[in-house]
Amino acid sequence: MTANESRRDAPGDPAAEPTAVLPETAAQLVELERLQQALAESEERARSHWNQYLRAVADLDNVRKRAARDVEAANRYGLEKFAQELLPVQDSLELAVQNAGRADARSLTEGQEATLKLLRKALERLGVTVIDPLGEPFDPARHEAMMMQASATAEPNSVLQVVQPGYELNGRLLRPARVIVARAP
Predict the structure, then answer these.
(1) Which end of the chain is more exposed for a tag (fewer CB within 10 A), N or C?
(2) pTM score
(3) In this predicted model, what pLDDT tens digit does every residue of 130-146 receive, in sequence order?
(4) Which of 1.10.340.30, 2.60.120.260, 1.10.600.10, 2.30.22.10 is the CATH number of 127-185?
(5) d(CA 110, CA 105)
(6) Structure confidence at residue 3 (pLDDT)
């Protein structure tokens, strides 16, 4: 051990104690305390924000999982209403097939008309509407022209005859109406 080493390790030796920076004035001491308090408050706010962030992430994850379950349920059971609306139509058709050998032409026609009426009501309840554009101007977005025919009575480029009606589901085109379009003679 050298003389310098023994002197540094000696108790009460100022060289052996860590040096602390002390404020020189009372104003500096007050400023130091204010800064320490501000630091503590900032750290508390940071912890609070971190906890809020973690809660928000967890909530977002829960929303994603719930939305995924809802989409899966909609895909799995989305046609339930559609199927329920069509079941009476199927029942009517099955009854017609069972009674086909015993029924006369008139009762079969009445049965078919009743079944068609059931089907139309079911489609209407599901939001399906018929596009029957007779006499309207031809609209290529909603109509499919099968041919053009000269007509002295109809406006040119208007629907002269509907070959097959079109259908929309809640305003979205399912099938365009197939039409014959009038042209000038």
Answers:
(1) N
(2) 0.58
(3) 999 999 999 999 999 99
(4) 2.30.22.10
(5) 9
(6) 47
